[in-house]
Specification:
The complex is a heterodimer of chains A (354) and B (325). With 354 residues, chain A is of the alpha/beta class. Helices cover 44% and strands 20% of the residues of chain A. Classes of the chains: A alpha/beta (354), B mainly alpha (325).
Amino acid sequence: MNNKRKGVMKGMMIVGFAVLLAVGTVLPAMAASTINGAGATFPYPVYSQWAYQYEKITGVRLNYQSIGSGGGIKQIKAKTVDFGASDAPLEAAELDEAGLLQFPMIMGGVVPVVNISGVAPGTLHLTAEVLADIYLGKITKWNDSRIVADNKGLSLPDQDITVVHRADGSGTTWIFTNYLTKVSSEWAEKVGNNKAVEWPAGVGGKGNEGVAAYVQRINGAIGYVEYAYALQNKMTHALLQNKAGKFVAPTSESFQAAAANADWANAKGYYMVLTDQPGDTSWPITGASFILVYKDQINAETAKAVLDFFAWSYENGGPTALKLDYVPMPENVVKMVEATWAEQIRAKGQQVWK
Amino acid sequence: MRLVGARHTLDVKQEQIMDLQKQNNFDPIFRYLTIACGGLIIILAAGILWELYTGSHLSLEKFGYHFLFSQSWNPVTENFGAASSIFGTLLSTAIAMVIAVPMSLIIALFLVELAPPQISRIVGSAIELLAAIPSIIYGMWGLFVFAPYMADHVQPLLARIGGPLPFFKGPPMGIGMLTAGIILALMVLPFITSVTRDIFLMVPAVVKESAYGMGSTTWEVNRKVTVPYGIQGIIGACFLGLGRAIGETMAVTFVIGNTHKISASLFSAANSIASTLANEFTEAAEPIYLSSLIELGLILFVLTFLIQLAAQLWLKRTKRKMGVA
């Protein structure tokens, strides 16, 4: 019996060894055909669509974990992923310190949404100052004279305003508070601009979906979400007054108008914020989402695979992005970015992108 | 095993001796295994404490004990304080326990003493089913079903009853401290109930029957015999529930409103240590921000430990007072 058992053990060991060998030889081969990225949640829908289409064509798999912009920056700095993604751009100094290269991948808009009985989507007009004062907790009723002044046609109720913000740190919050910082000196002084801030008023929802749920639940609520969430949840969006003094609606066109004015060529390290841009049709709370890669790559093959994916996405990803209510990067910016790749990304001293 | 009969062959004898030897070998191995597993628990707990301590040294250094009393939570100026999170954790747990403990006792008594066996079985398994529901389900139900009900019916009523008291002020949003406390109560209720029920079932029938034989009413038997007999176990069950409530994350995050403010009104949004961690950990890139979050974890660890300690002491006291060994 013992002998028999020994035999079985021996057999199992051989099988196990064979499996180990097989795994050992297969894994490295697989590694080259998988790209790992992590970061921002805002572009996740479009990245995952691109990844799906790209894998069908090339067989290269993209494994993107949408853990948040802060998480993406942490992961790329810890070198556990091939690229990081962030909605908030990093300053040139921070990039240089870490040896990272940053480039914009996609653009989108942040939209104020409200839940006031009797107010239809796209009918509430808000000026920048009013929006800031609502979020500062200074305007607390919907029938406040300053709101009524811009909304002569609407009958606004005598109702408390419940401010809804993100509870988690978020690139969306970064873009939104960047806008408020630009348009309100009081906001800049008291609160400031970050992925999470000390909110003077209101309640916090987790994620875009959390904010959307709270706004839909609470009568008299106002919140801010990515455009796609406002559309998908059929929420009541407000019109915002832009820098030119015009009230505009959030649409792909108004995001593009904001993006068109951006001077990417003179933005060091592609540090570009698209909030409060000039132009009659520009949506004031527009933002870009960024990709982070190392300038000095360890593995030329992986580096090439990553850049190939983004180049393909720039070239072929436009229609998918528009369908999902994002704004693709304009062609001149893409050319600039690719020139930067060629110039700055090296693997063992060799140029990766030619 | 000790006696080897004459009818056994030599082979069998030898085998038995080998068995004995095996036993001799195996006993110490088993002993060391148990010691090792027991030790592992200590090492794990100590390791977690150590990790939390080293992870939070930045924030411990910068804020000192002010961290415990400061209400500020400002990622922009990097000024953090845990007061609102600690307050929210304690208050939401307190609300939960105030609701859940009496209800659990009543349900358990009903199941054991009053309900017909058929109903007792059905309700009993329903309670165990409730205990198995994942917390995220409670959270989603709380947000989408219970919070609107609170906003439309319960909170306006409480606001009317509460009058000038500060506890029920502010717009009835449906989410906030009170809703979080009630959801927590619903979550711990099945735990406390099912353990308490088992404790009541263990009360010897003789003891109860003697009391009935002396002419006691059902109420008297329950109050003076069943509950005192099981008091240790009941307190244990309560602390089991408290342990779950104090660290509950997802369900609370959904309905508490996530605001770093202390408010007297139970209607207003608040936060707890666990919900703050769930919300902010992924995006905390700055070292001091991360360190402050880890210190929150350390505080929760110490808080749980202190509560356990209090529970032990209380148990000892009740043991003496009730005279039940």
